[in-house]
Amino acid sequence: MPGRTVSTTVTTTDASFAVSAARSADLEAQIAEHPGDFRVLTGDRPTGALHLGHYFGTLANRVRLQRAGVEVFVVIADYQVITDRDSVGHLSRNLGELLLDYLAAGIDPDTATVFAHSAIPALNQLMLPFLSLVTAAELRRNPTVKAESEATGERSMSGLLLTYPVHQAADILFCHGNLVPVGRDQLPHVETTRLIARRFNERYAGGAVVFGEPDALLTDAPVLLGTDGTKMSKSRGNAIELRSTEDETAALIRRAKTDAHRTITYDPVDRPEVASLLLTAAMCTDADPVDFADSIGSRGAGALKALVTEAVNEYFRPLRRRRIDLAGDPEHLRAVLARGNARANEIANDTLDDVRHVMDMTY
Ligand code: TRP
């Protein structure tokens, strides 16, 4: 979700987080053994190009699951862009950037299905029966929606912001996704999805299982901060984007905030800016941030920045090359999206037919 200003502070109870974390370890074991039993559904809001935080936080994980043999569906959530802002921005351009990031990162259009909300009418129609299954009070209690609304300041909450977790349930349930890789802020939405699946089956299907309850798969990737030590976000100008050139990357890291201590140590609590740079380099080189700090020692922030720049540029060089190649073939991009939309439409139409059938709405 590039450009979003909401921080991923605690938005679920510690108890439900702990349950999901334990369950996630279990799921990983099952995935390793039977990847074919799972279908991942996840996605992003098309608000701009993705940065390293997105890459290490979610995108790399999707590619990992895909390579393990799990079927992957990715929704480009264009209807979620308009939950909390007045203008749509440059939707088609942003969608193009997102698609380039996906493909360059290794999402394989031959096995994965990438589609956009607005292209799948039957998915959107599921919103109506699903809305009937939740109360207004339940919607108002969603901690992530509350935080997002507060982040918009004075702006009063739109009906779409209040109800988008139900729309997100339609994203997941239309294709019977059973695995939703998410960060902590999205857990309440997976809970809502489970509730809707359960209630749909009870209320409209006489207990038959039309919709299974999906599981959240929590990622344990550490959170990368931006180069100013605050949350990495495009709108703050502190994000290294996947599409950045090597020179842009070097310039951004050169300006990164550090601190007055010359000796480099990994101390996320007292030295968050230095720690985040170390973590960035460690993720790119598959090293331990403590070892990375030791290798720099008293050579100071200049040496740190040079090494981080090299690590980032080295790691992302192949991805960036692929991205440039892909950007030169807009026909291919259009075809990938058209294929994804067609496949999603086919599945959504089948699901909506099933829903009409159990609801006695086939006339
Ligand atoms: N809300 C998610 C985000 O902002 C994006 C999203 C849309 C999503 N639909 C989804 C994530 C379904 C998981 C499952 O990041």
Descriptive overview:
The chain has about 375 residues and is mainly alpha-helical. The chain has two domains: about 15-220 and about 330-360, Rossmann fold (3-Layer(aba) Sandwich), CATH 3.40.50.620; about 245-325, Tyrosyl-Transfer RNA Synthetase, CATH 1.10.240. Helix content is about 55%, strand content about 5%. It contains 14 helices and five strands. The chain has helices spanning about 15-35, 50-65, 80, 90-105, 120-130, 135-140, 145-150, 160-175, 185-205, 245-255, 270-285, 290-295, 300-325, 330-360, and strands at about 40-45, 70-75, 115, 180, 215-220. Helix 2 (about 50-65) links the parallel strand 1 (about 40-45) and strand 2. Helix 5 (about 120-130) packs across helix 8. It is globular and about 75 Å long. The structure holds tryptophan (TRP). Tryptophan binds near residues 172, 180 and 182.
